[in-house]
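Subject: sequence -> structure tokens, single chain

Hey, anyone have a minute? Need the predicted structure for the following. Not urgent.
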Amino acid sequence: MTSSHGRGLHLAAAVDQRSAYDADSYVALARLAESGGLDFVTLDDTFARPGPDALAVLSRVAPATNRIGLVPTVTTTHTEPFHVQAAVATLDWVSRGRAGWRLDVSTTEGEARLFGRRHAAPADALWTEAGEVAEVAARLWDSWEDDAEIRDTATGRFVDRDKLHHVDFEGSEFAVKGPSIVPRPPQGHPVRVVDATEGQARRTAARYADVALVRAANSAQAGAVRSELRSSAQKLGRDPDTLRVLVSLVVDLGDGEHAAEPGHGGGGPRQTAHGPLYRGGPVDLAELIATWHGDRTVDGFHLTPVEPRRDLERLVNGTVALLQHRGRFRTFYPGSTLREHLGLARPANQYAVTGGAS
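Reply:
Had a minute. Here:
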């Protein structure tokens, strides 16, 4: 049920677990999500609390899964943009084209002290910097043309140097010459995901995100933000149909098939300090998803289970199964890459197309 312009319903889930360091538990959750045909799973990461490295964990999950997209959070603050893009490109290679990257920023002085390079900065400035990191990452992913590798053992030539390009990027906090050390990823550009709920993050999402996440407590609010994001993208020279807007909901499906609590069900989730929360049964959640998507308010949902294993099982075996039965969600993956799941084209190489000098 996916169309070329992405009007098919898109569903994703978080696989975050408190104090879990065993890779097998993340593999199990990702496989469960994959059994329901979800577009991708996310794994959050922050310098503000202990936990495993999300990108490394999902690199371990990659060979244990076949189709589902893998989207770790990788902060753009206090990290080296060159290393970040290379790591994300590597995840795309080891997953055979299923990598995404959820951009985030680190705003606290405590996080800054971990590195000792600079003090904390305002969120708006950090999101502007995140946009620059997204820009230089795209250039570095394009710094190898798709056919730059020769691998000619007879002549000993590994690459065609005419098909490697310097990016020569000057940002507000960094400068990168390039080219990358990793060949162009299978997807061209791994999928970039941004929480576009507020402020400068929304502007960065409109310019650079393939998927924008929005925390909205009702359909009208979600629709207004989606319209704003699409309009901003168009003003920035983008085709707004290349942007998917997903509503982020925390879901508590512990009450089984009971009707959703007042304020949680078909009338919309309840706003909490941690974002909109849906608490109820899988059937009412399916109704909410179908209604919001059916009136073109959103392109889909990113769902964070309160109890990872329990709620993801009920989401896949209850909510998703019902949506599939009603013909509202696909029963198989349309392709092999995350871009294909999302109905997004593989981007052309900006240097190959324009003939940019190396």
